[in-house]
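[audit] Reproducing an earlier prediction to check determinism. Same input, same settings, fresh worker. If the tokens differ from the archived copy the diff job will pick it up downstream; this log only records the rerun itself.
[audit] input (403 residues):
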Amino acid sequence: MENKLKLINEMAVDNGSKIVMLVMDGLGGLPLEPGGPTELEAARTPNMDALTARASLGLSDVVAPAFSPGSGPGHMSMFGYDPLEVLIGRGVLEAMGIGFPLTHKDVAVRANFCTMDASGNITDRRAGRIPTEECAKRVEVLRQIQIPGVQIFVEPVKEYRFVLVLRGEGLGANIPDNDPQLTGIPALPIVAEDSASEKTADILRQWWAEANKLLAAHPPANSCLLRGISKDPGMPRFPEVFKMRSAAVAVYPMYKGVARLVGMDVIDHNGETPAEEFEVVRQHWDEYDFFFVHIKKTDSYGEDGDFEARVHVIETVDEALPILLALKPEVIVITGDHATPAKLKRHSWHPVPVLLAADSARFGVPGKFGEALCLHGTLGRIRHVDIMPLALAHAMRLGKYGA
């Protein structure tokens, strides 16, 4: 990866052109029945459909065929970092998303409040999606836990999510999630996968046992699941590699975190809807060359199995799209970080639609933006890690390779 990024950096040209990367989280979908439309195909999207007339379309494998990616690998791949070479833990992304000042000594954990029954089996992995204010109350309870030899920080994130950070000497992070990703069974044991992580695993076991005692009196969030146990690996900085002033506009902390991790500025705002997020881009248009704009609810409703709600979110994005198009970016990319079909209620391995609109694009046959049209698009079948170099090339930001 470093060699490729070094080469891109050597070829990159700062010519003042602008790129917008619009990411509808979990965009890839599936028909509910044979011959039916995916969520994207079912949505009324006249603005995206019109954009296909001056765009290259394709389908993209986020990691590789048959790999179902997490959000971290999905975003790193879109940003040009090969997810097979660098795996960023969700804990680090969540901590950075809320602006927590991680140090090299820290192990960060992304945690979910959950509901467990009297037998210790998980009945709801998200505790009914409790509101953020309820999350904050339970975080205050968990801050009572102290374990000798380590500093412990517990911070609320959003809804049922919170961050646990351990700070101390000799803490490794090679520990799998204790979230089984299923209901009706207990949480998985917390086990280190190497000797360097044994100390951390022991601390987490102690912490989790105490957390369960304290949370027992606070249903429905009467337990928690630990995920994405990780440390900051130190990444090449996106603005320096690609020679662009770069900014992120997102609502959920995790996606702010992945942007901060690679060195993008995260624009503070109070927007919630796609139109409000796009207005933030408009307000800061002159300050940056690259905008990463993230829409979350396409993924959330996919995990809930709500096909129609996913369709509605896509339609609200399309209704607001003229705000971005009026800014006349040299390149606009519309894609997702992975597929989350409502039919499956989970992230999946299916390739993700990609629309890359630019005057320099090789145009195909215009039509309804969706998986079927993308299957026959001029981009063909690509890897997500190639989206960023393709965006640079179409913005005339890459020089010639070789003599």
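[audit] rerun output stored. Observation attached for the diff report: The chain has 14 helices and 13 strands.
[audit] end
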